[in-house]
Design goal:
Length: 400
């Protein structure tokens, strides 16, 4: 029998995703099974990613976890649920073949370190990237391949969509055990090369009501949510999938805005109501509609999750002009050089008619910064050992 390895270490990265047909509401809270299917765009990891190192060793005495350098409790039920799921898959795989030359013992304790290349407090979907990354790293560690979205779903529903790049559909599934509630790629990130994404960070505040708690109240009280899940989403998903396949920005943008608006309408229809949008979010919505009305077509599409930050979809040839419109409407308060982050943005001068019709107000300092990104690939394995977040002793490395 091959000797078991003493220490094994793997590092992966995983992306953030933003839904254009929203997931809101569970039919099973423990298994994290949604009441409706959803569809998202995976964002590029050059701008937004989680990096996770997972290590297992016979010398570790307990499971330990570090998030952004701080040690946190490993007992979190969803974390345990992901871990259980990946180990179950590993056991299943090993049962199927005796070929493993150096199996890593599933009974070894593990150390996990995870960090984001963006501020967690910015309200960007960090749990989706976090759980997708955890599952990717653990799966590699245990030599598990194939379908992993089911394991990521156990951490956070939206995390299953971060297990693939490009355009991803999470099928609600029918089975009570959730085995058919999986995420699948609709089209790869290369499919729509002109598509761009702007994240308008308006607030670093932590959200008032977590998605998990919010959707539970919505399921219990909102008749609109029931109608949405049964009638509206199934039809929209088909149209959304088609608009992506055909790279039809007009249809894609309209559906994206309508679905974001309906999600926030179900929040208002929840009792007591939940408010994720703030006054600034509403100003951005109005600005996008003025911009589109001026151009007499859908040039930009907004979407908002469980917080006030706006995510804007647009095509590359609109970026410079729209960024200038945002800069004029919400002039940076201080350090204006940090206002634009991510992919480079060209300069644009705004025609007088556009200024008069679209830039109708100026609220200095309201938008903290704009992050320019695009669709990107799914989780990646980092081969370079110097990128591990844990040292050879299994403890977080001191980072310069
Ligand atoms: C508004 O995936 O964070 O972002 O499954 O309870 O962890 P849990 O919820 P989560 O909800 C995301 C909600 C959303 C819409 C979406 O991403 O589809």
């Amino acid at each position: 029998m091959a000797e078991e390895r003493a220490l094994a270490m793997v590092t992966c990265t995983a992306p953030v995703n933003i839904a254009v047909i929203k997931y809101w509401g569970k039919r099973d809270n423990d298994l994290i099974l949604p009441i409706n299917s959803s569809l998202s765009v995976t964002l590029h990891q050059d701008q937004l990613k989680t990096t996770t190192t997972a290590a297992a060793s016979r010398d570790f005495t307990e499971d330990r976890l570090w998030l952004n350098g701080e040690e946190v409790d490993v007992g979190h039920p969803r974390l345990q649920s992901c871990l259980r799921e990946v180990r179950r898959l590993a056991r299943k795989r090993r049962g199927g073949s005796a070929e493993d030359s150096a199996p890593l013992s599933l009974s070894y304790k593990i150390h996990v370190a995870s960090e984001n290349n963006f501020p967690t407090a910015a309200g960007l979907a960090s749990s989706a990237a976090g759980y997708a990354c955890l599952v990717s790293a653990l799966a590699r560690l245990y030599g598990v391949e194939g379908e992993l979205s089911e394991a990521a779903r156990r951490g956070s529903g939206s995390a299953c969509r971060s297990m693939a790049g490009g355009f991803v559909r999470w099928q609600r599934g029918e089975r009570p055990d959730g085995s058919d509630s999986l995420a699948q790629q609709v089209a790869p990130e290369t499919h729509w090369p002109e598509l761009r994404v702007l994240v308008l960070v308006v607030s670093g505040e932590k959200k008032q009501v977590s998605s998990t708690a919010g959707m539970q109240t919505s399921v219990a009280t909102s008749p609109l949510l029931k109608h949405r899940a049964e009638v509206v989403v199934p039809e929209r998903l088909e149209r959304m999938t088609r608009s992506i396949r055909e790279r039809d920005f007009e249809a894609f943008g309209q559906l994206t805005m309508q679905d974001s608006n309906q999600f926030h309408a179900t929040c208002l229809d929840t009792f007591p109501p939940i408010f994720y949008l703030n006054d600034l979010s509403r100003r951005i919505i109005a600005l996008a509609h003025r911009f589109n009305a001026h151009h007499a077509c859908t040039k930009v599409a907004y979407t908002f999750d469980a917080g006030p930050n706006a995510v804007i979809f647009l095509l590359a040839d609109t970026v410079a002009e729209f960024v200038e419109v945002v800069r004029r409407s919400f002039p940076p308060a201080a350090n204006g050089d940090q206002f634009l982050r991510g992919l480079p943005v060209g300069s644009a001068s705004l025609p007088q008619e556009l200024l008069a019709a679209v830039v109708t107000e100026s609220v200095p300092g309201a938008v903290q910064y704009i992050l320019h990104t695009k669709p990107g690939p799914g989780p990646q394995l980092l081969d370079d050992p110097s990128q591990h977040l844990l040292g050879a002793d299994g403890l977080p490395r001191c980072r310069a």
